[in-house]
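Subject: sequence -> structure tokens, single chain

Hey, anyone have a minute? Need the predicted structure for the following. Not urgent.
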Amino acid sequence: MKQKMAGIACFSFLLFVACGPRQYSGGKYVHPEKTDLLSDQFVETDMQKIAKDLSKSLLSSDIAKERNKPTVLMSLFTNATDEHIDMISLSQKIRTDIYKGQKFTFLNERLRDSMKKEYEYEAGGLVSPETAKKKGKQIGADYLISGHLSSIRQPVGRREIVYYKTTLELTNLETGVIVWTDEAELKKTFRKKHVGH
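Reply:
Had a minute. Here:
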């Protein structure tokens, strides 16, 4: 009987170890641009490729060749896919890649409310007049950059084809005219297989 109880206890312990909570170990760094297509969802490699293609196109446009660096503002980026995609990260990645080309001056639209509060604080007498920043000295934008991401999923037997299209537009703020636009396209194919339990 003792042997039977010991066997049950040993089996229970092994079952707990095999099926109990697991932790990751032995992690390592990999290059951020290494492609691992393990999911049919929008992944970081897609974001990197889209940003690289669109920023390269804009940096080679006639607008980018103007003598005075145009002042631009990142505007609305919309997501028409069936996935939750961080459009702020996508727009920031595009902005960073364009910024590195040193052909545009970017305004920080996300800090406008914070800057407004700081102006009010500095004008309240708590900051020396010599160092207080005054309203009315910000630079106005010449152009707005906006983007739109859409996708099409096409199941074909045991395969699935996923297509993404990202459109980027540069709009003249004064006239409302689109002065430049381009698209970046991605097409990925996946083969479905049964995963054993």
